């Protein structure tokens, strides 16, 4: 014998789905921007108002502001456009050292009603320092019988942006 769903069972199930979708819409994904290091002051990172679903009037009326978790205020919001802009040049090496990733967490505070949004700004490395070798000249002796495409290891170079770099020199032998 099978049990049939009554009116009350359907009502509870409908109520459950209603609450599920209501809660689903209140869950926000994290906003993340990516910029190269050393951008000029006033450079636009992204339109934070649009990305958070706010109108331009909300920025001023609800007192939208950005607070840095790092202590330094690298970013601000242009209230007229809703854009997140760079306050000062960011030196990735000074901020994150030799770390592979450099992410600045920010809190966006919106009042009336109070809302907090966490955003991240990834600072990408710009290779602004040339690598250097200990010796300026390298002499490589290559035999006539060397096969085309052979690689010869060189000493490691030091790059202030990424640390020690291992180098290989490829021979450019051509057959005639």
How would you describe this protein?
The chain is α+β, with helices and mostly antiparallel strands and 176 residues long. The chain folds into two domains: 97 residues, Immunoglobulin-like; 50 residues, no CATH class. The protein is built from four helices and eleven strands, in the order H-E-E-H-H-E-E-E-H-E-E-E-E-E-E. The strands form four sheets. The protein has a four-stranded mixed β-sheet with strand order 1-7-6-3, with no helix packed on it. A three-stranded antiparallel β-sheet has the order 2-5-4. Strand 6 and strand 7 form a beta hairpin. The chain is elongated. The termini are far apart.
Would you summarize the structure shown here?
With 176 residues, the protein is of the alpha+beta class. The protein contains four helices and eleven strands. The protein has helices at 7-26, 48-51, 56-61, 92-96; strands at residues 31-36, 44-47, 65-68, 75-78, 83-86, 103-110, 115-124, 151-153, 157-159, 163-165, 168-170.
Quick one: overall form? elongated
Q: What is the total number of structural domains?
A: 2
Low-confidence stretches: 22-28, 170-176
Percent in helix: 10-25%
C-alpha Rg (nearest Å)? 28 Å
Enter the CATH topology name of the largest domain: Immunoglobulin-like
Structural class estimated from helices and strands: alpha+beta
* Helix-strand pattern: HEEHHEEEHEEEEEE
What is the C-level CATH assignment of the largest domain? Mainly Beta
Number of strands: 11
- By CATH, the superfamily of the largest domain comes out as Cadherins
Give the terminus-to-terminus CA distance: 89 Å
For the largest beta-sheet, the strand count, sense and barrel status come to:
4 strands, mixed
What is the second-level CATH architecture of the largest domain?
A: Sandwich
């Amino acid at each position: 014998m099978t049990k049939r769903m009554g009116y009350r069972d359907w009502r509870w199930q409908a109520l459950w789905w209603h609450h599920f979708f209501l809660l689903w819409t209140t869950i926000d994904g994290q906003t993340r921007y990516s910029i190269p290091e050393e951008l000029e002051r006033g450079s636009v990172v992204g339109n934070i108002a649009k990305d958070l679903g706010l109108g331009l009037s909300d920025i001023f009326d609800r007192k939208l502001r950005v607070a840095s978790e790092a202590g330094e205020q690298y970013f601000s919001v242009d209230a007229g456009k809703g854009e997140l802009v760079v306050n000062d040049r960011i030196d990735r090496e000074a901020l994150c050292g030799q770390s592979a990733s450099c992410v600045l967490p920010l809190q966006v505070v919106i009042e009336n009603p109070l809302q907090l949004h966490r955003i991240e700004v990834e600072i990408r490395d710009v290779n602004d320092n040339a690598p250097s070798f200990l010796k300026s000249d390298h002499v490589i002796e290559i035999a006539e019988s060397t096969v085309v495409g052979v690689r010869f290891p060189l000493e490691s170079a030091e790059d202030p942006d990424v640390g020690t770099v291992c180098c290989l020199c490829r021979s450019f032998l051509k057959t005639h």
